[in-house]
Design brief:
Layout (H helix, E strand, L loop, with lengths): L3 H16 L4 H7 L2 H20 L5 H23 L3 E2 L2 E2 L3
Antiparallel strand pairs: 1-2
Length: 92
């Protein structure tokens, strides 16, 4: 059985992977809250689509959840760093 700590480590590893993507620093600075919601919804939509079609592909669905969780971390980081979100500078 996978522990909560192991899942958390996997999410953090995915966030670090996202940080290595070319151009991500620019995207992280310019993404709005709506952008993060759209990205997370897209990943969750992929998982939901598999459920709706009754084609549960465990690893693919799991990967969608991990990526979504990492994107949510990126959104919180953006808010905490006082970056512009929806045209307004956020403060801690």
């Amino acid at each position: 059985m996978v522990t909560r700590e192991a899942i958390g480590k996997e999410i953090v590893q995915e966030r670090f992977r996202q940080d290595t993507l070319v151009g991500i620093e620019v995207l992280d600075q310019t993404n709005s809250v709506n952008d993060y919601v759209a990205y997370a919804t897209a990943y969750l939509g992929r998982a939901a689509d598999k459920c709706a079609r009754n084609q549960r592909e465990g690893q693919n669905m799991r990967a969608s959840f991990i990526k979504t969780a990492a994107l949510c971390i990126a959104a919180v980081e953006s808010l905490e760093n006082g970056e512009e979100v929806d045209g307004e500078t956020q403060t801690n």
